[in-house]
Amino acid sequence: MAARSGVSSSVPSLPPPCPKSPPEYPDLYGKRRETAKVQMLEREIRFLEEELKSVESLQSASRYCKEVTDFVMANSDPLIPTSQKNRKSYRFWKWLCGLSCFNLSWICCCCYSWHSCHLKCPRSCKCSLCDCSSCKCYSCNCNSCLSCCTIPKWRCCSCPKSSCCRKISCSRNCCIFQFPSCTDCCCCGWKCCCPKCPKIRPCRNCTKTCCNPCCLLF
Amino acid sequence: MSVAELKERHAAATETMNNLRERLRQRRQQLLDTDVAGYASSHGRTPVTFGPTDLVCCRTLQGHTGKVYSLDWTPERNRIVSASQDGRLIVWNSLTSQKTHAIKLPCAWVMTCAFSPTSQSVACGGLDSMCSIFNLNSPTDRDGNLPVSKTLSGHKGYVSCCQYVPDEDIHIITSSGDRTCVLWDITTGLRTSVFGGEFQSGHTADVLSVSINGSNSRMFVSGSCDATARLWDTRAASRAVRTFHGHEGDVNTVKFFPDGNRFGTGSDDGTCRLFDIRTGHQLQVYYQQPSDNEVPHVTSIAFSISGRLLFAGYSNGDCYVWDTLLARVVLNLGSLQNSHDSRISCLGLSADGSALCTGSWDTNLKIWAFGGYRKVI
C-alpha cells in the first residue's frame, strides 16, 4: 500500500538489524590456569623457606671435601695401579707388550680381564705367567679354578658354538683355553684387527696362525 | 579473585621466590670455605700422571653406520649395548669385538640405551617418545629381527635417557623432553611414578639425563635444560628432594660418584661439577679454559671405580681425564693415537672399572684400558 503523499511519518525508524553480542562468559580457563601458577609459586616459596632453614644447620664444605678425598684414597683403581709387584712376571709381560702387534698387559690370562697383569697367579690356577690377586679366582680353593670359578670370564660366556652349554663349569674342548682362536676357525669368531699382526703361532683348533693372546699363551 | 588480581599475586610471588633463591645462594656461598682441589692439595695430594702409553685404545668396535649416541655395559660379562643414528642397537662382546646382536629398531631416532641388570634385556628410547624393551633371548621374527617385548608409552616428549633400577629387571627410569622422569613397571608397562610435570614441582625444561644411586637405588638424579640437577626419591614423586644450581647452561649428563653421596654433572657451559646430595654443596668445578674462544659442551661423563678419575667427553672431540681430587686434566684421550675422529657422545666404565668405552659420532666405539704401570703418591 503506498504511503499517502504529503503526510510526514510519526513512527520512529528502526535501527538497522545487527547480530547480538555473545554473552560475557567468565574466563574460567584463564583464571584457573593463573590460580594454578600462583599455587605452584607459593609451594616453591615454602620449599625455599624450608631449605633456607635447613642450610643454617649445615656444616661447611671442607668436611665433605675431606670425605671425598678419604674415599678416593681408600679405594684402589684398576686404571691407576698403586704399586709395583713381581718384577719377574712384569718382565715377561713387558716383553709381550713390546710386540709390535699387541700391548697385552691389559689382558690377564687367568681372568681374561682388562686390568694390568703384574700380579701373582692363584695357586690353583694353571697359568704360571701372571699374578692375579685382584682376580676373584684367587680365593678359590678347588683344584682347578677352571671348573668352579666365576672367572675366567671368557669361559663359555662368548663361545659361538651352538652346542656349547655356556655354563661356567663346562668342560667342553671349545671352552678350555681354546677360545677364541682365529678368524676362520669354526669354533670361534676371533677377528684380529691389528694390521701388523705377526701371527706368531698356530691356533690349537686349526692350522691357521693366529695372533690371539689366548693362542699365544696356550 | 579476578584474573587481574591473580596476576598481581603471581608477580609478587615471583619476586618473593627470586629473593629467597638469592638469599639461599648467598648462604650456600658462605659455607663453601674450600673445594675438593683446595682441600686435597693442602693435604699433600699430588696429581695422577699418565704417560703417553699408559691408557691405550685396546679395541675399536666397528659396525654402526651412523653416529653412536649411547652405550651401556652389562653389570658382568663385559658386554656392551650401543645405540646409533643408523637405527640399530648392537650388543658387543667387548673382549672379542664380536657382535652378538644387531637389533633393528622400529624407530630409527634412538637417543638412549641400557642393559638390564641380569643382561637378559636391553632398553632404548628416542624421538618416538617411547621406551622399547628387547629380550635378547627371544626368537627372531621371519625377517630375522628381534621383536619388541614391551613398549613403555606415556611420555609426551622424546625419551632422552633410560636406566634400569639396579638388581632388578622389572623397573626402569626414563627422562624426557616433556620435563618429567618416569619410573616404569616393565611387567605391566605402566608408570609407577611421574617425577615433575606441569603441576608438580620439578624441572622446568627438557630433562636430558638420569643416574640412579648404586648405593641406594631409591635415589636418582636428573639433569635438565633448565640448568639444574635434581635429586629424587622414588617414594615421593611429588617434589624433588633437592635442586642443585650452579650451571649456566643445559645439564647434559649426570652420574653418581662411586660413594653414593655425591654426583657429577656435565653441561653446555663447558664445566663438570661435583655436588653433595645430602647438603647441596657444590664441591668442585672442573673447567679448563679452551685455547680458542669457543667453549665446548660436555656431552657425557663417567667416574672411575675409585672416583679418582673423571672422564668427560666434549663436543669438540676432546675426552679429558680429570684428576677429581686436584681438578686437573691429566690426559686427553681425544688427542691420543688411534682416538676418535669426531665428537665423543657417550662413555661408560665397565662394571669392574678396568676398561672405559667411548662412543662417537664417527660411528665407532673404542675400549680404553691401562697399558702401563703407574705409582700414585
UniProtKB/TrEMBL annotation, chain A:
Compositionally biased region (Pro residues): 13-25
Alphabetized InterPro entries for the sequence: G-protein_gamma-like_dom, GG3-like
Coiled-coil segments on the chain, per record: 31-58
The protein, known as: Guanine nucleotide-binding protein subunit gamma 3-like
Segments of this protein annotated with the region Disordered: 1-28
Domain G protein gamma: 34-104
Source organism of the structure: Durio zibethinus
Origin superkingdom: Eukaryota
Keyword vocabulary terms for this entry: Coiled coil
Gene: LOC111299192
From TrEMBL, chain B:
CDD domains listed in its UniProt record: WD40
Coiled coil feature spans: 3-34
GO cellular component: plasma membrane
WD repeats: 61-102, 152-194, 200-242, 244-285, 337-368
Gene3D superfamilies: YVTN repeat-like/Quinoprotein amine dehydrogenase (2.130.10.10)
Keyword tags: Coiled coil, Repeat, Transducer, WD repeat
UniProt keyword Oxidoreductase present: no
Family of this protein: Belongs to the WD repeat G protein beta family.
PANTHER family hit by this protein: GUANINE NUCLEOTIDE-BINDING PROTEIN BETA G PROTEIN BETA
Protein name: Guanine nucleotide-binding protein subunit beta-2-like
Gene from which the chain derives: LOC111296712
